[in-house]
Amino acid sequence: MASPPNPVSDAQVGLLRDTVVALVRRDGADLSARQLGVFLTCYLNDGGHTVRGLAAELNVSKPAITRALDRLGELDLARRKVDPLDRRSVLVQRTTKGSAFLRDLRNIMTEASGGGKKGSKKAAA
What we know:
The chain is globular, with a radius of gyration of 17 Å. A hairpin with a 2-residue loop joins strand 2 and strand 3. By secondary structure, it is an alpha+beta fold. The protein is built from six helices and three strands. A three-stranded antiparallel beta sheet has the order 1-3-2. It starts with 9 loop residues before the first helix and ends with a helix.
């Protein structure tokens, strides 16, 4: 019996690996998979994000989101602010440092995919 086709190619998994390795090698703190997932959700999906909304979107507990946001806050990649319209709710805000991290992440992925200098050298080797 043949295996069903896998929609994720080895190249995509390799890109993920190269990106994660580059993130680990760079100066600064590392993000866990959960922290990176929360970060990317906040930065790539428009709209106001709340702990409750992030927990629902990522299908993880609110305490897990809170811990991830604590770490992102320590690193100044995101911050929390009380919602002025509903003081019971906390909004997650983007930061300048977080925007710079996302830009760096995009550059790392471009290089890892062969679109940058390092990736081009790797492809030629």
